[in-house]
TrEMBL record:
Subunit and interaction comment: Homodimer. Forms a membrane-associated complex with FtsX.
Membrane topology: Peripheral membrane protein
Organism: Desulfovibrio ferrophilus
Protein name per Swiss-Prot or TrEMBL: Cell division ATP-binding protein FtsE
Gene: ftsE
NCBIfam families documented for this protein: FtsE
Keywords: ATP-binding, Cell cycle, Cell division, Cell membrane, Membrane, Nucleotide-binding, Transport
Amino acid sequence: MVQARHVSHNFGTHWALKNVSFSLNKGEFLFLSGPSGAGKTTLLRLLYASLPLVRGQAEVAGFQLKDLSGRHVVQLRRQVSVVFQDFKILKDRTVAANVALPLEVRGMPARIATKRVNAVLRSLGLEKKALCRCSELSGGEQQRVAIARAIVINPQLLLADEPTGNLDRDLAMHLMEVFKQFHTFGTTVILATHNRDVVESVPGAKRLELVDGHVTNANWQAPDLEIAQTSELPNSRPGCGPDSHKGGRQ
Ligand SMILES: Nc1ncnc2c1ncn2[C@@H]1O[C@H](COP(=O)(O)OP(=O)(O)OP(=O)(O)O)[C@@H](O)[C@H]1O
């Protein structure tokens, strides 16, 4: 489902990812961990083709990411959903309208779409908020709307960046049950988190740690997995200059 080979990515002079190689089979669950600034979001953005792949090779859901055309980006995103840290929901629209959007885009008849939206909202405890504007919701509720919108299409691959970041422990654990349920039905999941409880809530999941853009640890072995020795990593200062890939897709 996901193959990355020697993937690197720079923002100006700063290398946010360095020579990352790993594979994930269909139906696997992967946690990405590592300190702030390690490159987790950058890796998720590359896999969602919201950043262009400049160095290395990567294949996601059968699409080669290098030189991916706009048409293929659209096709890729029919199968891959993402929950970004900043949610990217439409604040002036209702919860139900936000969650229905990906189904509308796919041309699903409204009656079936409404049923599907209601089921997902129920599974995330949002059914009473269905007709509220997203601008009226708390941060944690907005986060759940973003998750509902991502899972409503039953994606082949779900990418989630700190999806439990704004939630209390009980809600976070409930949400992990929802993710696990999707995973049971065959969805491949890559979830970036700092939360140890979240990682431990999915026994058997793969774990990959990033430090300073390198893969420094993983809980599995494979010929295509490259682990950098932490002691050999150079000290690099994160750059904060202009994004060298401003042409990156959203
Ligand atoms: N658009 C950008 N322009 C310049 N530098 C960037 C940009 N996006 C990320 N970076 C830099 O790339 C590095 C990796 O950032 P990234 O967001 O991938 O880290 P992260 O592991 O997701 O961190 P966090 O856990 O805090 O979300 C950081 O040093 C960051 O400052």
